[in-house]
Model the fold of this input.
Amino acid sequence: MGHFQFSPTHSSLATFCHEGPWNLVHQRIWLLDIRARSVQPVFRQGEDDCIGHEFWTADGKIFFDNRRKGHDGTITVHKTQATIQKEEDTGHIPFVGLADEKGQLLRKIDLPYYCNHYHSNRDNTLLIGDEVEDLVLIDISGEQATIETVCSHHTSWNTQRTHCHPTFSWDNTKILFTSDRNGVCNLYLVELPK
Done:
């Protein structure tokens, strides 16, 4: 059991995951109702799903990343983990999803490529993601996601500690991320583009 997280809106609900290579885990995210003592899957995975990077949004939704068939979730120093791929190259479109507090899919947002990690703003209209070399702002407020580069992060991806894990400030005006661009891990804060 890993990634145990309580819901920010319901103190009796939590999620946890079954860790392992994403392409070998048949159901990663689980919802635990502590009062009812029940466990159920969040977004019942199909054969071609490779799910990860789950978290609760500020308003109590469950966010997850689906990289699609065959991806093991590994992030390496070889920087081959987050690449722009055409749908016809893979046959699958990666997407991010939002599920409700019962684990049911509310929204699926197709993306032209996947990032290594994501985080959402307070109203779930923007995501910040860490692509191979850049932090990208992903607008998911419309029918199709639009993506713009915020800055280069220059992290090495050498260990888990060097992963960017970008996140929004509580007031949604800044992005906080990690990088070892100067040889050691530091936190960096960048103003959100207007």
Observations:
- Confidence is low (pLDDT under 50) at residues 83-88.
